[in-house]
Structures are given as structure tokens and as C-alpha cells.
Design a protein that fits this description.
- The chain is an alpha+beta fold.
- It has three domains: 214 residues, Up-down Bundle (Vanadium-containing Chloroperoxidase, domain 1); 118 residues, Rossmann fold (3-Layer(aba) Sandwich); 162 residues, Tumour Suppressor Smad4, CATH 2.60.200.
- It is 47% helix and 20% strand.
């Protein structure tokens, strides 16, 4: 098993915030209740403590089990288990993860002792106590340790396993064990309910907060490429866009043949629809716990599948059947189906970036290749579909000639939250990759796995000015001026003076005035050709 820290990055950044905020708020609420002697909480604590004591009294075997749990999940027991996980992390060269575990132990276990000294709450008292222990009660040390340790265990499980039933079962068991440790303290009669809840929430919130500070902030772009990922069972799913394939049954036969030769089992098949270009199909494939999802279709199908599979640790294979196929071209994936199948079933995984895109018209999606507004979007909109079906990407050239006189527009561009720079441009393109059809290096420095977005602003003053720009682009000249400017950053904000056509990965997406793009580094695994061995 390998650590894949990207698996712990949720699709929505707000999830992490909620996982920290909710337990923190609960802990703060209990602190207020305890320090102000809130009668409702105190009555609930007393009622639960009396009931639990009654359940445990007279059941010697049950009490013996409770005492064993108390010893196993003591601070010493939790510390030993955490040390084992930290050593394992160091063996896998995950120093940030090991440091995170060490800090969790120090902050949670040490901090819990300090909190008890601050609040000095007494423990429950009974005429016939089941288990005697000294010290203060709020918050529960065992519960804080359990909240920390099982949160650590859940996060480790997530980064070691792909999304599916196995992960859900393990995480459910770990949550149940954490609750069981807390309940153990109540049934032994040494803590109130509020002590246990406070301990669990303190341990959980602190652990996730330290993960964000120590691990997420130091997540590096993966550089070691695996030959095969997943469970090792070699189960694949194929998401097909039937409108791009032609003879679907013949296509399936060719896929089956290569899969069998490569040692993979019979693929699971899903077909896209007009209503769903691939999101639902990819999600269904993930629930089948496959190791590889192959997207067979145009750029739209590929984008939908990749958007759904990002951050799961499951690799995506690409069988390009569109006109542009820019992602495949930039990754070196063959456009020939037979060769592309060899790559999908026998290639290696490469972690690449995915970028989010928001517009003022309500578009909230992702892109893998390029997004932009102005003349480039006008070209996409103006492509004749019949001509495209006959001559392929050359149809874009014809549309480009027609759009060459697209009027200049005033735009403002800010990179990484900096100040806006003003331009008068014909087109602005934000790219995750560098090459257009025909190998034209529009963004020669762009890399799909560098954690950065590249921006090009093109502003020829007259029609003849396009010739100079073409020479500079094809010649990969790095010189910039007011006719051809480039910028780089992890986030890009573009504002146009008026409504302009916009495009996303080569598909027109209507008109708008504002684009916000943000890169998500290394969140997607794509199957690419095996790199030649270095000498």
C-alpha cells in the first residue's frame, strides 16, 4: 500500500472547514456550560451517569471488559500505537505525516492535561464506585486520546485505500471504536457525558487542524509514477460516449481483447447520455471499486470523467475519439485506439493538475486543458460541425481565419490575488497545458503537473500583426510585450469590459465578463505511456 495524500483532499474545500468547526463549536459550547454551571447540561450529566452506573453495577464481567478497554486505550496505549504509525510513515518516507502524528500526541495529550487543570471539574461520585481514579474530569483524557488516535487512523486509511466499500467499512469501525472508548468512561463511572463529548471533539478538531497545517500545506507534487494502482485485482470500467464511437459492439470487442492480453478482467461498461456526459457513469464505476476508469469519447467526456474521479486515487485511461483531443496530445497518449488501449491497460500513472473555473454567469466547473474568452472562444463557437466531421481540427483553422478580425476588448487580469493589470486584448487564454492542435506551443512553459496556471494575452493591433505573433508562438520566443504577454500563478481572475464569448477545453460555454480559475495540484491520476528507462 502506498500513501496518496491527494485522497485526503475533499472535492469541496469547505468539508475540511466543517470537520474542524463543528467539533470546535461543540467543545466551546460545553466549556461555556461547565464554567457557567448550566443546569440543563448538569442535569443531563447526572442522569446519564446514574443510569450508566446502574447498568454496570452487579455485572462483574462487563466491568472487567470496561477496565481492559481503559488500559488498552490509556494515554500510554494510544502513544505506543501512534508511535508505530509514525515509524511506518517514516519507513515510507512520509516525514510530514510522521511529524503530524508526533504533534498530535503532544498537543492533544499534553493539552488535555492543561485543560483539566484549568477547569478543575470533579469526577462523578457514587456510594459504591466501580472504578476509582484520581485527577480532574473535564475533558476526558481517554476520550481526547481516542478522538485523536481514531481520527489519525481514519486519515491514514483514506490515504492508503481508494474510495469504495472497504474504506467505508474500515472508517465506520474506527468511528464506532472511538465512541466505544468514550462510552467506556461513562459506564465505568469516572466521567460525565459532557466530559467524553468534549474529549472526543477536542481530539478530533485538533488532529484535523494539525493535518491542514502540517501535511496539507506541505503536500508535494507526486513524482514517483506507479506502473499500476488500485487494489491489484485489475478491474476496469469503460465510460463510452456512443455518439463518438460508431460501432459500439466492435469497440467493446477490441477493448476486451486488449484487456485480456494485459491480464485485466472483463471491463464494466457505462454509456453516456445527452443528459449526463460522464459524471454519473464515472461515479457508478467508482462504487464498483474498480482500479481503472477508461474514458472513451471527446474532450467533454474525458473532462466529465476526470472531474468525478479526481482525488479518489483511481487512475483514468483515455481513449481519444474527439476532434481536439488536447489532453491526450499533451500527455503523449496515442490517438490511435489500439495504441491508446495499450497505454490504458499497460501504461503508468501520472499525477496531473485539475483546475476549477467560475464565471459571472454561474458556471462552476473544472477544466484540464484551457479556458478563455475573446477570439479563441469565438473560433470555437464559429466552427462548422459538418466541416469538422470531414476535415477534423482543420475546421478550427477555417473558423480562426473568419474570427481574425474579432475586436479588441479591455480586460483586467489579477494573478494570485495581486493587483489587476489592464490590457487591450483580442483573446485571453488560461492554460493547464501548452500545446494546441498541430503542436502549436501557445504556452510553451506550461506543464500539466507543475501546480501552476499559465496565462497568455494576445493583442495584435492590426490584422498583419497576427503574422508577428504566429512567428513568436511557433518559434517559442519568451519575449513579451503589449502584443503578446504571459503570466503564471496558481489562481487567475479575469474581468472584461463587456460580455465576451467564453470557451472551456475547446467547447463554447456562452458569454460572460468574468472568469476565476484556480489550480488543484496533482489531484488526478491519468494513465500515460511508460517512460523510457534512463541510462
Amino acid at each position: 500500500m502506498t500513501f496518496d495524500l491527494r485522497r485526503a483532499e475533499p472535492g469541496r474545500p469547505s468539508v475540511i472547514a466543517w470537520l474542524i468547526a463543528v467539533p470546535a463549536v461543540v467543545f466551546a459550547f460545553l466549556v461555556v456550560c461547565i464554567t457557567t454551571d448550566t443546569s440543563a447540561i448538569l442535569r443531563l450529566d447526572a442522569h446519564v451517569a446514574k443510569w450508566a452506573h446502574g447498568v454496570s453495577s452487579g455485572r462483574d464481567t462487563f466491568v472487567d471488559v470496561l477496565e481492559v478497554v481503559a488500559v488498552v486505550f490509556s494515554n500510554i496505549g494510544v502513544g505506543i500505537a501512534l508511535a508505530v504509525l509514525a515509524v511506518y510513515s517514516l519507513m515510507r518516507r512520509e516525514r510530514a505525516v510522521a511529524l503530524w502524528m508526533l504533534l498530535c500526541a503532544v498537543v492533544v495529550l499534553g493539552g488535555n492535561v492543561l485543560l483539566k487543570l484549568i477547569f478543575t471539574r470533579g469526577r462523578p461520585t457514587f456510594a459504591d464506585p466501580l472504578y476509582e481514579v484520581g485527577g480532574y474530569s473535564f475533558p476526558s483524557g481517554h476520550s481526547a486520546g481516542a478522538g485523536m488516535f481514531f481520527t489519525v487512523a481514519i486519515l491514514v486509511t483514506i490515504v492508503l485505500t481508494g474510495r469504495g466499500l472497504k474504506r467505508r467499512v474500515i472508517c465506520t469501525i474506527l468511528v464506532a471504536l472511538a465512541l466505544a472508548v468514550g462510552a467506556d468512561r461513562i459506564f465505568l463511572g469516572v466521567h460525565y457525558l459532557s466530559d467524553v463529548v468534549a474529549g472526543l471533539t477536542f481530539g478530533m478538531a485538533t488532529t484535523i487542524g494539525l493535518w491542514v497545517l502540517v501535511v496539507s500545506s506541505s503536500t508535494r507534487l507526486p513524482h514517483e509514477l506507479a506502473v499500476i494502482t488500485g487494489s491489484g485485482r485489475r478491474r476496469a470500467a469503460v465510460v463510452i460516449n456512443p455518439s463518438k464511437i460508431g460501432d459500439v459492439e466492435d469497440f467493446k470487442s477490441r477493448v476486451r481483447a486488449v484487456a485480456e492480453i494485459s491480464g485485466w478482467t472483463e471491463p464494466i461498461w457505462f454509456e453516456t447520455t445527452i443528459e449526463d456526459p460522464g459524471h454519473g457513469q464515472a461515479n457508478a464505476a467508482l462504487h464498483e471499486e474498480v482500479d481503472l476508469i477508461i474514458a472513451a469519447g471527446g474532450d467533454g467526456t474525458v473532462r466529465a470523467v476526470c472531474e468525478e474521479v479526481a482525488r479518489t486515487g483511481v487512475a483514468v485511461g483515455i481513449l481519444p475519439h474527439g476532434t481536439g483531443n488536447l489532453l491526450a496530445r499533451n500527455l503523449g497518449i496515442p490517438l490511435n485506439t489500439r495504441d491508446a488501449l495499450d497505454v490504458a491497460f499497460g501504461g503508468q500513472d501520472r499525477a496531473i493538475d485539475l483546475s476549477t473555473l467560475k464565471t459571472d454567469t454561474g458556471t462552476n466547473t473544472t477544466f484540464l486543458v484551457m479556458a478563455g474568452l475573446g477570439m479563441d472562444a469565438a473560433i470555437m463557437t464559429g466552427v462548422n460541425d459538418q466541416l469538422k466531421s470531414k476535415v477534423g481540427w482543420l475546421a478550427y483553422f477555417v473558423s480562426g481565419v473568419k474570427a481574425a478580425r474579432f475586436p479588441a476588448m479591455k480586460v483586467k487580469i489579477a494573478v494570485d490575488g495581486g493587483e489587476f493589470k489592464k490590457f487591450r486584448a483580442r483573446t485571453v487564454v488560461v492554460g493547464n497545458v501548452g500545446f494546441l492542435q498541430g503542436g502549436i506551443p501557445l504556452l510553451p512553459d506550461a506543464q500539466i503537473d507543475d501546480g501552476l496556471l499559465d496565462v497568455v494575452v494576445i493583442a495584435p493591433k492590426r490584422f498583419i500583426g497576427w503574422l508577428a505573433i504566429i512567428v513568436r508562438v511557433v518559434g517559442r520566443q519568451k519575449r513579451t510585450n503589449d502584443r503578446l504577454d504571459r503570466m503564471t500563478g496558481s489562481s487567475v481572475h479575469i474581468r472584461a469590459e463587456k460580455m465576451m464569448p467564453m470557451q472551456l477545453d475547446g467547447d463554447p460555454v456562452g458569454e460572460g465578463q468574468e472568469i476565476r480559475a484556480q489550480v488543484q495540484p496533482g489531484v488526478l491520476l491519468v494513465r500515460v505511456p511508460v517512460a523510457p528507462a534512463s541510462a
